[in-house]
């Protein structure tokens, strides 16, 4: 029907109440349908939608596990929450760390006590847990172990933040995620934000930095400073680094509490070996001091690898012995194809010779890798 065909009276007369209500209902339905259609199209076009849904699900499960319920999280906080570690699920305790008693005692006094005895320190800015702690030293010496044991002992929530979580995102997203790290930590406090290899994440700022990276670092620092405002804020950033000299000095200033975790001394190596071999079937003639003496310059992770290797020799021996027995049994049964069960069913104990073999093997592989690195650093042509 054309507009001019509509009677003039109908056009100029005021609308009745029912007509206004009907118009409003139609407009509302149309608006809602348009909104949901656009939202559906935008969601369908979002390349990260699937990942976001997975992260949301994981985050919700983790929040439930750690007993934080009824806290409303934004989409970005959900993303960060998927990196939460339930302190109760952490297996590492102080007893799993050998030779670092001094570091552990100091950590207990300066970091864990203020978290555990919150009521004693309430209201005082001086007795808050430090806002930043740095663990530094060569690789494989127990920094990650210490961070995990700290989270377990303090009972704090633990955000295990990977640099890539913040840096791999689209332009602008990394800043929103950085903000979410701190806002989430405050919502679920007491909380430790752990950043392994902090040197690669918050390294010396340079003019070569991408604009987004530079902004993210500046924002990280200002949010970190913001934690200082409340006396009851129980959030701490804990960084671990093999190369503290590469960490931005402005970041280092924010981590005044530092713990140096060096390569283990002779006594510490002996303690680490003893701990690693606890519960294993060892021969009586084991002399761990001799092994510790032969492993100068080895990290805790090297000692673990060495013990694993030593333990494997007896497995190889066992398998060979089994094979020999089978051959002998087959020969004895004069070609009868019948397979007899092999009686011996346990491994022999780990011996000193196994450990010494493992030391020699590791020395060779260390020499080979260091000469390979030297070749890479000083190419022949
Ligand atoms: N003091 C120690 N006591 C017991 N085990 C140790 C100790 N130090 C290292 N280890 C062993 O070495 C492994 C690696 O240690 P960890 O990951 O904590 O080292 P890291 O210093 O964080 O190394 P990276 O810098 O490479 O991350 C541990 O899982 C543990 O088995």
TrEMBL record:
InterPro entries: AAA+_ATPase, AAA_lid_3, ATPase_AAA_core, ATPase_AAA_CS, Mito_OM_Translocase_MSP1, P-loop_NTPase
CDD domains (alphabetical): RecA-like_ATAD1
Domain AAA+ ATPase, residue spans: 129-267
Domain of life: Eukaryota
PROSITE patterns: AAA
GO biological process, any: extraction of mislocalized protein from mitochondrial outer membrane
One GO CC term on file: mitochondrial outer membrane
Membrane protein topology class: Single-pass membrane protein
A GO molecular function held by the record: ATP hydrolysis activity
Swiss-Prot/TrEMBL keywords: ATP-binding, Membrane, Mitochondrion, Mitochondrion outer membrane, Nucleotide-binding
SMART domains with a match to the protein in the record: AAA (SM00382)
Keyword Mitochondrion: yes
Recorded catalytic activity of this chain's protein: [protein]-with a C-terminal TM segment(out) + ATP + H2O = [protein]-with a C-terminal TM segment(in) + ADP + phosphate + H(+)
Subcellular location per the Swiss-Prot or TrEMBL entry: Mitochondrion outer membrane; Peroxisome membrane; Postsynaptic cell membrane
Family (UniProt): Belongs to the AAA ATPase family. MSP1 subfamily.
Function: Outer mitochondrial translocase required to remove mislocalized tail-anchored transmembrane proteins on mitochondria. Specifically recognizes and binds tail-anchored transmembrane proteins: acts as a dislocase that mediates the ATP-dependent extraction of mistargeted tail-anchored transmembrane proteins from the mitochondrion outer membrane. Also plays a critical role in regulating the surface expression of AMPA receptors (AMPAR), thereby regulating synaptic plasticity and learning and memory.
Name recorded for this polypeptide: Outer mitochondrial transmembrane helix translocase
Organism ancestry: Eukaryota, Metazoa, Chordata, Craniata, Vertebrata
């Amino acid at each position: 029907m054309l507009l001019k065909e509509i009677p003039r009276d109908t056009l100029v007369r005021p609308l009745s109440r029912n007509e206004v209500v009907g118009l409003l209902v139609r407009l509302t339905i149309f608006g809602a349908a348009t909104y949901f259609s656009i939202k559906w199209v935008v969601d369908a076009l979002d390349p990260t939608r699937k990942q976001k849904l997975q992260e949301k699900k994981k985050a919700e499960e983790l929040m439930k596990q750690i007993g934080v319920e009824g806290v409303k999280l934004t989409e970005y906080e959900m993303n960060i929450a998927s990196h939460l570690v339930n302190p109760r699920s952490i297996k590492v305790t102080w007893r799993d760390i050998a030779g670092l008693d001094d570091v552990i005692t100091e950590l207990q006094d300066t970091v864990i006590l203020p978290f555990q005895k919150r009521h004693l320190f309430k209201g005082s800015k001086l007795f808050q847990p430090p806002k930043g702690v740095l663990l530094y030293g060569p690789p494989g010496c127990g920094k990650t172990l210490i961070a995990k044991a700290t989270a377990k002992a303090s009972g704090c929530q633990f955000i295990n933040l990977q640099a890539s979580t913040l840096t791999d995102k689209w332009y602008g997203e990394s800043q929103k995620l950085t903000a979410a790290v701190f806002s989430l930590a405050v919502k679920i406090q007491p909380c430790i934000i752990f950043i392994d290899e902090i040197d690669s994440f918050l390294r010396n700022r340079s003019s070569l930095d991408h604009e987004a990276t530079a902004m993210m670092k500046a924002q990280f620092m200002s949010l970190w400073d913001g934690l200082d405002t409340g006396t009851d804020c129980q959030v701490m950033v804990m960084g671990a680094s093999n190369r503290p000299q590469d960490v931005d000095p402005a970041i280092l200033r924010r981590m005044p509490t530092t713990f140096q975790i060096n390569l283990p001394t002779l006594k510490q190596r002996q303690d680490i070996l003893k701990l690693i071999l606890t519960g294993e079937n060892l021969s009586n003639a084991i002399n761990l001091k001799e092994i510790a003496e032969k492993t100068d310059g080895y990290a805790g992770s090297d000692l673990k690898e060495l013990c694993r290797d030593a333990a494997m020799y007896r497995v190889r021996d066992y398998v060979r012995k089994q094979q020999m027995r089978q051959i002998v049994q087959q020969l004895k049964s004069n070609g009868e194809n019948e397979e007899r069960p092999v009686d011996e069913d346990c491994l022999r104990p780990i011996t000193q010779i196994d450990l010494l073999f493992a030391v020699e093997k590791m020395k060779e592989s260390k020499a080979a890798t260091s000469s390979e690195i030297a070749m890479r650093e000083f190419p022949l042509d």
